[in-house]
Specification:
The protein has 4 helices and 3 strands, in the order βααββαα. With about 70 residues, the chain is an alpha+beta fold. The protein has a single domain, classed as Arc Repressor Mutant, subunit A (Orthogonal Bundle). The protein has a 3-stranded antiparallel beta sheet with strand order 1-3-2. A hairpin with a 2-residue loop joins β2 and β3. α1 packs across α2. The longest helix has 9 residues. The model has no long low-confidence stretch (mean pLDDT about 85).
Length: about 70
Amino acid sequence: MAQTPIPLTRERDTLTLSELADRLSIGKTRAYELAQKNDLPIPALRIGREYRFSRRALERWLESDHAADADNAA
């Protein structure tokens, strides 16, 4: 019986503020300001002093028309 290989690395389900900023092509300071104002396109989860963001929610938003609208407005 053949065994299916198990991947050694797996992407986390959440992104840090820095990772989110990179994906949105904005600075960390700007991402932090938007997170504080709850003005990001996806919900922010605050754990202590850190913010976390759903990787899936960001991917869905980036694939949606909303992301295209934001690019056109810039």
